[in-house]
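Suppose you are handed a protein chain with no further information: no name, no annotation, nothing but its sequence. What can you learn? This example shows the usual starting point.
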Amino acid sequence: MDARKAVIGVLAGGSMLAGVALGAAFTAGSSANAATTPTNVTTQADASASPGVFVSNEDPAHEAGESAEREAQENAGQRPTVP
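A reasonable first move is to predict its three-dimensional structure. Written in C-alpha cells, the prediction is:
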C-alpha cells in the first residue's frame, strides 16, 4: 500500500469520526433541552403558527368596524376577502 493512500484513508476515517462526534454532540444538546421543557404550559392559538388555518378576530373593537359579508366569511371559517 502506498503511503499516500494510507494518509488519505486515515484522513477520511478521521473526518468521518469527527462528523459522528459533532452529530452526537448536537443531538445530545437538543434532547437535553427537550427533557427540561415544561409540559404543563398552555399556549394560545396563533394564526401565524399555522399558515393554513384562519383564526377569526372576535375582539369587540374589531367586530364594530366589520361588514356583514366579512363577518359571514369569518363565521364560515374562511379567510375574509372583503373589507
